[in-house]
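Quick note —
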Amino acid sequence: MPAIVNAYCQPKPVKVKSDKPKSCVVSHAEFVRNANVTPAEIAGGSVQCKPFEYSTGSFGWLGTGKVTVKLANGVEVQCQADVKLFVVNSKNADRTPDTDTAETVG
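Predicted structure written out below.
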């Protein structure tokens, strides 16, 4: 029996990865200087996320907390929420020391 081939199915184009790393819109020093505690709203509750630098070199916010979720039958259950927010391309961010906070010898 011959195989049935869908003639209308076209192959997906292959994405070519660029060798050039993508840049981050904020430097590491700028993030450290300006990042504040940020609330994340989850299921009607709020989790406070603190600025955090991950072991991968990326930076962003990290928060944990408990939120209450209501099921379809009306029963409310308490859940543990873990929130990770990464600044896109932060691993490639500029890591030069901040000159505004560096001590000068005079």
